[in-house]
Each structure stands twice: as C-alpha cells, then as structure tokens.
Design a protein that fits this description.
By secondary structure, this protein is mainly α. It has one domain: Acyl-CoA Binding Protein (Up-down Bundle), CATH 1.20.80.10. Helix content is 58%, strand content 0%. The chain has four helices and no strands. Helix 2 packs across helix 3 and helix 2 runs antiparallel to helix 4.
Length: 89
Amino acid sequence: MTEIKPLFEQAAAAVKDLQERPDNDVLLRLYALYKQGSEGDAHGPRPGIFDFVAAAKFEAWEALQGLPREQAQQQYIDLARSLGADPGH
C-alpha cells in the first residue's frame, strides 16, 4: 500500500495554486479535511461567537469527529483533484 501522507501534502500545496478560488463551502470542507487529516479530531478552545470565520472553521472540523486521518487525507486528495489540483505530478 502506498504512503498517503506525501500525496496529501502535495495536494495541500497544489490547492494553493488553483486557477479559480473555490466557494466558501468548498474552502470550509478543504480546511476541515486538512485539519482532520493532519491533526485528528478537533481540539482546543472553541472560538468566540463573534469570530464568525474561526467559529465556522472549527465547526466544520468538529463535524468530522471520528473520521480516521487516512480517510480524511484521501477525501482531501479526491476533493483537490475534483477542483483541478494535480497532486503527485
């Protein structure tokens, strides 16, 4: 079985160079999958209710609670590819 972590890291780098900026829902999904894939389940203090962006990011990450890191990494890679990023090349 191939090591997924290098491909995950390449996908994260490739997403930064996308031609078009994804919409906010996709950006939140990318963020949550990246955090789950790199750090595991959400942890740390919940952002304040008036920090809307940070709260949305935390909630998106928290929604992936229990998803194994490798699965989150694969979903991130798949999403990156669907957006036109080309990890691994």
